[in-house]
Structures are given as C-alpha cells and as structure tokens.
Amino acid sequence: MRSKKDNRSFSPHLLITMKKCPRCNTRKSKRYCPALGKSLCTLCCGQIREKEVHCPADCPFLSKHKSYQEKRIIEKKSTHRRIPYSEEELLKDERMAWLAFNIEAPLKEYAEQRPSLNDREALLALEYAREKIAKGRGLVIMPEKSGKPRNELGDAIYQMIERCRYEGRIIVAGKPQAYSTEEKLKVCAKLIGTLKQLAQGNLEGRSYIRVVLERFAQMDDQSRRNKVFTIT
C-alpha cells in the first residue's frame, strides 16, 4: 500500500532547484540559463552574465539586472594616475601607444557612423572588451543569436585587440610582436580611466569621443602633409 508521501508528485522546476549548480557545485541551481541549457545558482548567473555567456534578449534575469550591472561598471573606480590626457605616460611608449591606437580605431569608426554614440556607450564597450580579455575566452553564443553580439562595439574592440601586433619603425627579421594579456589589460584600463576623467561625470556627453575623433583627424592631416612633402 502506497503512502501519501509516495503519491506526492514533484514538478520539474522543483527538481531543478534541488540540484547543485553545475558551475560552482556548491549552491542550489535556481535560475535556468537558456544560453547554456542548464540551471545555475544566482551568484554564478550574475558572475557570467554577458561576460562568459551571450544572454538572449528575452532572458528575464538579463532584463532585470542589466541596468544594475551597467551602473556598477560605470561607477567602478579606476586605479590609473590622474594626469592630463596629453601627458599620459602610457602613450609615450610607442609599443603601447600603437595598441591604444588600435583599441580606439573602432570607437572612431562607430562614432563617425553613429553621431549619437556617447561616452557611456564607449565606456561599456571598453569594459566589455577588457572583461573578455581578463577571462581569456569569448562569450558562449547561442547559434540562433550568433548574428550580432550583445555589445557590438565592445566585440569589435576585443577583436581588434586580439589581432593587434606591433611591428615598430625598424623592420627586423621575425614575426611582429604580440601583446601580452597584462599589456592589453593595462592599455584598456588607462583608456577607461582617461574616458572617465574627460567625461567628468557626464557620460551622456561626448567629451572622450570628441578627443578620439580630433586625434585621428590630426593624424590623418599629418599623414597627408607627409605625403605632400615626400612627393615634392
């Protein structure tokens, strides 16, 4: 004879929440992740959301916490030395300056294509790229959502950083020098700090974006002048 306890039925959701999170193997898995196809605990969900996992737009946990995460990124304190942009020690190093140039190149292109691009979007894109470099791996992307990354500008910056190689002014035998993870993170951190310094709390403006556009315009102008001098 079956007892009342034996006749009790459990819902699939209840069974899921009783299992341990497969990522930490410590806490209960209470949140179903559509990108991974399995459930995670709340802490792991927050740790990998839009960092290691490309979350689909209809994920309730993404929409619920997105504004909070962006606020944390924007308010994150920088450890760089607060010195004027024109005197950035980092940019005096030709090797590091070349990496910074390549990081800002996608920002320049997007700013020209989208006049509405502001410092807030630039900051989130730089932080997105920095996080991917720090993690040492790309986002897990759902096949049906792979056409366009969550942060398109951030992904463009990340791809540019990964492709960037330093050749130097003197051509020598051997392959162009690759950048270490530490160098990539250092330059990203410096540019993020510079952006925040120039924005002065107004991330809805374009203080940093304008500096980037002006600097590229000056380089283009200098390049044209050099070509004229060479011809004459």
Question: Can I get a quick summary?
Answer:
The protein is mainly α and 232 residues long. The chain has helices at residues 4-7, 12-18, 42-48, 60-75, 94-113, 119-135, 152-163, 181-199, 207-231; strands at 31-33, 38-40, 165-166, 177-178. The protein contains 9 helices and 4 strands.
Give the oligomeric state of the chains in this entry, treating copies of one chain as homo and distinct chains as hetero. single chain
Radius of gyration: 23 Å
Number of helices: 9
Q: Give the N-terminus to C-terminus distance in angstroms.
A: 104 Å
Total domains, how many? 2
Structural class: mainly alpha
Give, in order, the helices and strands: HHEEHHHHHEEHH
The order of strands across the largest sheet is 1-2
Helix content: 40-55%
Report the average pLDDT across residues.
76
